[in-house]
């Protein structure tokens, strides 16, 4: 997840291969060889052996360069392997052979959407809808891209139309996501429940239902539904430990060794590391497996043995993913453990960064405006640096960038500014970031790992949130039960960062400028 946590927005639907019709062409040796190879390729593809299938499709295209199905399905594999640009090139070749095939426009639209070119994605989905007005997949896919374009009412109409054509779980799942973005959360929950009724084993629908329930404060059921995420360990970045049982919360841990496994984003690990002490209180030796960048920082947790994911591990008796612990400990709005008091930057890092910052002349405000671009919701949780500068420039404070990695555009912007200090590669790991956060008066951050780190350290942390934020920030409140030192600034309307920044500017002025 999300992230932060990770959220599923509806799996792309690919056009199916056409049945190969017998014709005099296939009486020729080359054609017969191509047909045999194509049948091998589709079998391998159906078995999930993607590189092997792609090799077979390529051999078909060597024999018959205008083989529509081999081109199309090679593009599908390129998409499945994460190479959307290669997929576009293959779909383009296929479209020159059959321009009126709706599936090729659906597939090419999906590839453009993965590349972030929403306008070209929409153009392709529009073409697919025009060619196949009774194809529910075309409407579902167009609805998904309309959600990304913030055209939510249009998206909802597409999902409704798709469901009129076919009462399919994917339409209800997508509809539930759109309703959530429209802040119609109870209706969204009902849509996910309908999706589950139609497809009881759908991981997407259960996981989305769990996130929706947690967002509206229905914790017990939300945690339970969220456990479906564990069927997608690769998506979570969760290392599997099949040689030991998963702790169920009931088996005694007295005298046992348990491994707590990180999953999803850096912020998730920081947020849920607080549960390690609760597990230890059950009498266990606790091993905490974290992302390597977090190991130096989290090693300061008292009584917890911390390992990076690339470190050798001692023998352990059982394991559990970190984000399953809130369900085990029955966490809800009134029963959330406090951030670990022992977490801190090392004295060496604090001394180093105090010297690096130099003499304090004005209030120091740490800032982070963007997160991991691979996060499924990064398009709505991050904001452009230029927007931040437009609203916050001119305050008599020292701005300190707390992000290590920047986009090329942001690097160019910062290079032309003397009022924001950026340390880049000097931030070697989160111990350094924790030291910088500790030396700030206030940290202002979007929903990313910096916000979780600063709030866990107990620093005043002002979190900038989308109108429909990640589940952990709940709805309609300016405080967080997870972080006592956090103050939440929410968009009043979808995408309105200017309003959020204006509130922050006013509060910074009130805090640091005496009358």
Describe the overall structure:
With 515 residues, the protein is α/β, with parallel strands linked by helices. The protein contains 24 helices and ten strands. It has helices spanning 29-46, 50-63, 68-80, 84-97, 102-115, 118-131, 136-148, 152-165, 169-181, 185-198, 203-215, 219-226, 233-236, 266-272, 275-280, 295-298, 325-328, 347-357, 378-381, 385-392, 408-415, 430-438, 449-456, 497-512; strands at residues 257-261, 285-290, 305-308, 318-321, 364-368, 398-401, 420-421, 442-446, 461-465, 486-490. A six-stranded parallel sheet has the order 7-6-5-8-9-10, sandwiched between helices. The chain has a four-stranded parallel sheet with strand order 3-2-1-4. Helix 21 (408-415) links the parallel strand 6 (398-401) and strand 7 (420-421). The longest helix has 18 residues, at 29-46. It is globular and about 80 Å long.
